[in-house]
């Protein structure tokens, strides 16, 4: 569980950011994790369930109750039994003597349900932390899109100025200036849209801990910094220890406890009773007692035993199905991560530097009258599209990384020949 809890810390290390709820009150991503862990209703619900299961454990630990009774015979009849003179009164104490380990079986079942609840709570808590990381990444991505949009605004503003100078010099028609101004307005629209997406993503993030009017700002962080991950074979091995599968171990313990309880029902219990009786004649007293045992308990217990065995068999099949599903999800996430990381890396190393040089050369040529506005504008649009493509690929790789960490319960930021765990989140 500590490894699973540490999984999301890798995202913190990758982004290395903090976000405040107020300008003077910065809030780190770990603080956001703490807020969700302390306040989210899904987690507080486990506290109430734990109390209910503790009460069930206490109830299961109780032995059969003692039953006190009184019996009156030969009263309010006829002849010698008329009135109360011939009454015989018996005071008794009765209970059930449990056999077959029923008490221990009930305790084991109740305790195993408590243990399973703890695992379930931890799994849900970590799923929420993964959701925090995903929503935080959405804010970072929207902020980065805003920065790219502002680059486009500045770029188009310089284009409008250059087109206006050429038009004033009589080197180009007014239509070029109008076209450049339209491109500038579209760039401003993209910038405003990015700001709106950032505000919506911030609201979505703050909703996890119940903040209705978030005013925090995210500072720092580079979503383009995508780490390496371990080989798929290593990830698949880690998958065997994920909490999703660990829950089946607890469910198996519950099933085994139910089977043991069903088996204990095959051993009959003794109903016993002892008491003292006052005789009608001479005011004498005598002891009375009885023992009874039900017949056919072994036969009646067989359906419950078969049902408990069938549930254990079904649980094993469910675990196998879950393992296959998790393996498929891990393979898909690992594939998405590899493709997206490669795309972001190659765009940054090969494509964007060449487009930047080509755009700069086209700008120089346009100012010198050696290139048309259409050539320069096309290169500007292609450069901006490549930057957006790189950001989209990097964000996709980061989302896949969070999913891999959620599945494997591991935190890692690996470089060439290096892999290490990060600190744990709350």
UniProtKB/TrEMBL annotation:
Keywords for this protein: Signal
Source organism superkingdom: Bacteria
Record's signal peptide: 1-23
Family: Belongs to the outer membrane factor (OMF) (TC 1.B.17) family.
PANTHER family, A to Z: BLR4935 PROTEIN, OUTER MEMBRANE CATION EFFLUX PROTEIN
Protein's name in the database: TolC family protein
Species of origin: Luteimonas lutimaris
Organism classification: Bacteria, Pseudomonadati, Pseudomonadota, Gammaproteobacteria, Lysobacterales
């Amino acid at each position: 569980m500590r490894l699973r809890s540490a999984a999301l810390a890798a995202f913190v290390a990758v982004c290395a950011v903090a976000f405040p709820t107020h300008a003077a009150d910065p809030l780190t991503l770990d603080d956001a994790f703490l807020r969700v862990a302390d306040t989210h209703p899904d987690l507080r619900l486990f506290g109430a369930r734990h109390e209910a299961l503790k009460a069930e454990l206490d109830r299961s630990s109780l032995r059969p109750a003692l039953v006190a009774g009184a019996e009156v015979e030969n009263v309010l009849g006829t002849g010698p039994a008329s009135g109360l003179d011939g009454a015989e009164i018996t005071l008794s104490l009765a209970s059930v003597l449990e056999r077959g380990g029923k008490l221990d079986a009930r305790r084991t079942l109740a305790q195993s349900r408590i243990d399973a609840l703890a695992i379930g709570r931890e799994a849900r808590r970590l799923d929420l932390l993964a959701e925090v990381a995903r929503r935080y990444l959405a804010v970072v991505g929207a902020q980065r899109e805003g920065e790219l949009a502002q680059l486009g605004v500045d770029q188009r503003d310089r284009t409008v100025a250059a087109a206006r100078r050429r038009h004033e010099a009589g080197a180009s028609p007014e239509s070029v200036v109008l076209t450049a101004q339209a491109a500038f307005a579209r760039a401003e629209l993209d910038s405003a849209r990015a700001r709106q997406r950032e505000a919506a993503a911030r609201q979505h993030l703050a909703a996890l801990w119940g903040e209705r009017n978030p005013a925090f700002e995210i500072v720092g962080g580079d979503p383009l910094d995508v780490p390496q991950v371990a080989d798929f074979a290593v990830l698949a091995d880690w998958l065997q220890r994920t909490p999703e599968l660990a829950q089946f171990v607890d469910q198996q313990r519950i099933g085994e406890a139910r089977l043991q309880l069903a088996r204990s029902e095959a051993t009959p219990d003794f109903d016993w009773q002892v008491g003292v009786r006052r005789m009608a004649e001479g005011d004498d007293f005598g002891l009375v007692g009885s023992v009874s045992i039900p017949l056919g308990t072994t036969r009646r217990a067989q359906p419950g035993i078969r049902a408990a065995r069938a549930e254990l068999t079904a649980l094993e099949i469910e675990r196998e199905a879950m393992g296959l599903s998790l393996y498929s999800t891990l393979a898909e996430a690992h594939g998405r991560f590899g493709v997206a990381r490669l795309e972001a890396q190659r765009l940054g190393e090969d494509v964007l530097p060449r487009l930047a040089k080509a755009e700069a050369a086209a700008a120089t040529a346009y100012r010198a009258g050696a290139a048309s506005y259409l050539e320069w504008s096309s290169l500007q649009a292609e450069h901006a599209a490549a930057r957006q493509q790189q950001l989209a690929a990097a964000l996709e790789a980061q989302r896949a990384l969070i999913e891999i960490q959620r599945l494997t319960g591991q935190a890692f930021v690996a470089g060439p020949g290096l892999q290490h765990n990060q600190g744990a989140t709350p």
